[in-house]
Amino acid sequence: MQRLGRWMPAGLLLILVVVVLRGEVLARPGEVWAIAAASAVTVVVHLLGRRRALLSIAAGTACYVLLLNLF
User: I want to staple 38 with a disulfide (CB 3.0 to 4.6 A). Which of 14, 53, 63, 65 is the partner?
Assistant: First the structure.
C-alpha cells in the first residue's frame, strides 16, 4: 500500500500530461514548437524550484500563452 501511495500521484500526472499534450498537438499541429518549449520550461522550473508543482505549472502555462500570443 505504501508503494502504491508513493507512485499513484506520479502515474496520474503522467496520464494527465500525455492526454493534454496529445490534445494540444492534434489541435495545433503548427505550434508543436511552443508546446515543446513550454513543456521544457515546466520541467526545468520544477527541478530547479525544489519541486513546487504550482510554480512549475504557472511558469509553463505563462510560457505557452506568451509564445502563442507573441509568435
Answer: 63
